[in-house]
User: What shape does this take?
Amino acid sequence: MLLYHFFKSKHALDSIENKHIKIALLTELNDPLELLPIFTKKRDLISWEETKTNFAQKHGIICFSKIWYDPVMWSHYADNHKGIVLGFKINDDKFQEVIYPKNDQRARLLIKNKWDTGTDKTPRGNALVLWSKYKSWQYEQEVRAWVDFDETVTTVKTKEKVIKYLPTIKNKIVLHSIMLGLNCDQKVSGILKALHTSNYSNVNIYKICLSQHSYSLKRKKIKIAPGEETA
Assistant: This one.
């Protein structure tokens, strides 16, 4: 499947050059109801929070969208249209579509303190907690994967924090396209340099533009002169 990840420009270049994608930690998520099941007793909630903390020490999440043309997504996740969207061909069963329950009800735990990331195409039981979000988030059309830190994960330590990355594994997560936002000032030459550094080929580059008739965004393919790809 073809999925899209929204970036600030500098983070997109880093992703291209180093062939990796930043893994989000549970403590960084922008939804306080993420991974919150139904509870009837306060002590169960406290117990669950402890379980979630333990889970967060061993797992992170990578989120993609099925769409690139929504202007709200560009506003929220691509630096107010100054960023870049990368399109990837995904061939990995770990990636599943997020569920947005129409009845506004959170998932119910079947077995306390026991869960897994699940790879079933239709998550059931405790796995629903990992794949469900409030219905207002459905504009994102999210597809996500839970990453086990015991897998092949790159760790980079900075002065502020520890950042974990998942390598874009050959034949699993493959860069397909690059889209520069409406207000993106990143030069195409910088994109080509990053592609050359990472030995990428056959990656289409587009500039996002306004539609004449609808609110959805359009894209126009950028023509690359012969020989410019390896300049």
